[in-house]
Amino acid sequence: SPKTYDGLTVEEWRERLINLGPGVPGSVQAVVGLTELVGDRTAPPLVRQQAAMMLGRIGRPSLTAIPTLEKLLSEPGTESESPALWGAKALALLGPLAKETTPRICVLLLARETARGTRLACVEALAQIGGHHPKAIPTLIGLLEDSIDHESPEHQLELRRAAADALRLIGGHASTAVPTLMNFLDHKDELLRAKAVGALGAMGPAALPSASVVAERLVFDDVDHVRKRAAFALGQFGPEVNELLIVLSEDEEPEVRRLSLLAISEQPTLDPKIQTAIVNALQDADDSVRLEAIKASVSHRILRSDCLQVGIGLLFSKNRTVSVEAAKQLEKLKPTQAEIEALFDREKLESNARARELMRNILRYDAEGQR
Q1: How far is CA 99 from CA 85, 93, 120, in A?
Q2: Residue 240: half-sphere exposure toward Cβ, Cα within 13 Å
Q3: Residue 42: φ, ψ to 5°
Q4: Is 3 left (phi over 0), alpha (psi -120 to 50) or beta?
Q5: Residue 369 pLDDT > 60
Q6: What pLDDT band is residue 62 in, cutting at 50, 70 and 90?
């Protein structure tokens, strides 16, 4: 007779796996059979892999399967089959529920014989488990600080990027990593710099000691997406950086002024002291800075009439991106036809086809002339 797992053969499980998933009726009852499949080394590898991943997706009802999934981390594999990889990915799906497996994941992560893909899956598992086990964050910090000698420089860099990303996902609970992440803000690899900045931002006020060096990335970095990440990070640090943002909003470089306003937009609440910076930016000589000031105002629901006036002026910008984005912001303000007519120059509008089209998109009326 064919071998069965909780009463079903492998072929029957192949069919059943198609219809299982989180919240799907019968999935909880399938945990016993799926666990038996995962634990049987003689079962077809693909079915075992599918069963392991399904246990991860089912979530909390799979708690009893965690010891079986953890055993996969120690199971030998081949070039085409990697039980350790399946185990790490399944445990990642279970997140904090699998926190007790953290020490074994850390061992696998650092072992000489661990394959490249499995190492990265281990980092992802630590990220999803988060700071719920005391070993997770120190291991990720160590991965950033110390190279794995038996890996190529390319893979070491890839692991450092993954570790920085994992710390970003963990957020404020990983604040002990702040000094280490700061050391990578001037790394030659732009992607690692960006990920380090992003991780500090995700930690919020817990990463406040890094504010000045993050601001240096905003001002001096040669790569646009790193500068933008730095702006987002500053916005997540809280009102304690407002004085710094005011200084940046007065910088001689338009892009620095624009990015300071992006940071202000990201703040969860607006300190009255910084509203002056937005008011001044609405009168800036640079179109992109004025546009970012509108975005900051819309984000915090302030200065509506000023934004309408400045936004209508930006519809005539020579920079198409600025004019289109200004129209989007005006749509959010929901101006009435009377407000629009009181602010724009009709003769100027008639002579500018793009502004005319954008205006039609902003104002959409029904037959009675109402919005």
Answers
A1: 17, 12, 18
A2: 13
A3: -90, -10
A4: beta
A5: no
A6: very high
- Pairwise CA distance, residues 35 & 103, whole Å: 22
- CA atoms of 105 and 122, how far apart (whole Å): 6
The burial class, CB within 10 Å (0-12 / 13-18 / 19+), for 213 is middle
Whole-angstrom distance, CA of residue 280 vs CA of residue 274:
10
Q: CA–CA separation, 199 vs 229, rounded Å?
A: 10
Q: With 70 as the cut, is the pLDDT of residue 265 above it?
A: yes
Burial of 233 (0-12, 13-18, 19+ CB in 10 A): buried
Separation of alpha carbons 40 and 50, rounded Å = 13
Amino acid at 79: E
Is residue 355 predicted with pLDDT exceeding 80? no
Q: Quickly state the pLDDT bin for 367 (edges 50, 70, 90).
A: very low
CB atoms within 10 A of CB 252: 6
Determine whether 151 is exposed, middle or buried from the number of CB atoms within 10 Å of its CB (0-12, 13-18, 19+). middle
pTM: 0.89
What is the three-state SS of 51-111?
HHHHHHHHCHHHHHHHHHHHHHCCCCCCCCCCHHHHHHHHHHHHHHHHHHHHHHHHHHHHC
